[in-house]
Amino acid sequence: MAGTEPILRIDTLADLPPALRGSVVAIGNFDGVHRGHQAVLQVALDEAATHAAPAVLLTFEPHPRTVFRPQEPVFRLTPAPLKARLAAAMGFSAVVELPFNREFAQKSAETFVDEVLVDGLGIRHVVTGFNFHFGRQRQGSPAFLSAAGEQRGFGVTVVAPFEDENAELVSSSRIRTCLKEGDVVQAAGLLGYHYTVEAKVIKGKQLGRTLGFPTANMTLPAEAELRTGIYAVRFGCHDGTHRDGVASFGYRPTVDNDGAPILETYVFDFEGDLYNEPCSVAFVSHLRDEVKFDGLEPLVEQMKRDEEEARAALQALRPLSKLDQIVAFS
Question: Rounded to two decimals, what is the model's pTM?
Answer without folding.
Answer: 0.93
